Amino acid sequence: MALSPSDIARYRSLGYLTDLPGLTVGECEELGARIAAFGRRHGVQEQLVLRNKAHLKLPALAPVVADPRIVDAVEAVLGPDVLCWGSSLFIKEPGGPEQVAWHQDSYYWDIEGDAVCTAWVALIPSTSLNGAMRVIPGSHLLPPRRHAASPSGSANMLFSYEEISGEVNEAEAVELTLAAGRFSLHHMAIVHGSAANHSAGRRMGYSITYLNPAKVRHHARRTHGLLVRGREWGMFSPDPVPDGEMDPAVLAFVDEQFGRLAPRSGTAGRTSSR
């Protein structure tokens, strides 16, 4: 197993693990170059388009979601059947206002069962200065928090434009700084968010959501994924296989699954899921 029994116990009690070994620095640099080239080639802002099934829109990302260095750790906390349910690229440009407001993924996902986690892979070092993710340890074990629309003018990067209503005790937060290629795992119900990028360079992370299809059910239309470990599909079906980058059939599929939450162009406005 990629994780020790004490690692797994820590994940269960705190809702996260961090600084896990994943990609090499060279692999991160190559992916960063491919992502930038994708933006230039298609005339889009990568941080807007490569969200919601990013590995289908840019197939160069697909090997990352199936990488055994990541999936081994995911299997250790979810069990032997692992399905990649989605992936998103989070990019904060230097000096920009963009931040990720405090939220719980479970609020948005309409999932029955909790065998769901997210691997957050740092493609560029994630630091205090450029807005590393912060989590509230143990918050996944507490009652769900209420969410509401973000205030007018907020730079919240979440496409639903919603966040936890009420105060979050930031004194309890733990910052998950990561070197390039390292990754963290967090439970879908943990309270988490991240600040703006105050550095002189990009901050870029690849967020990959996994679930055990034998242990969960989904109550809406997001019933497709990529099985990366095991044989059990449960109620889920295979994602389409893209015929290259930005395959029109794939874009139509993602639109149907997510209701056009992810804009296709760099000038598209924010939409709301609720």
UniProtKB/TrEMBL annotation:
<protein>
    <submittedName>
        <fullName>Phytanoyl-CoA dioxygenase family protein</fullName>
    </submittedName>
</protein>
<keyword id="KW-0223">Dioxygenase</keyword>
<dbReference type="GO" id="GO:0051213">
    <property type="term" value="F:dioxygenase activity"/>
</dbReference>
<dbReference type="InterPro" id="IPR008775">
    <property type="entry name" value="Phytyl_CoA_dOase-like"/>
</dbReference>
<dbReference type="Pfam" id="PF05721">
    <property type="entry name" value="PhyH"/>
</dbReference>
<keyword id="KW-0560">Oxidoreductase</keyword>
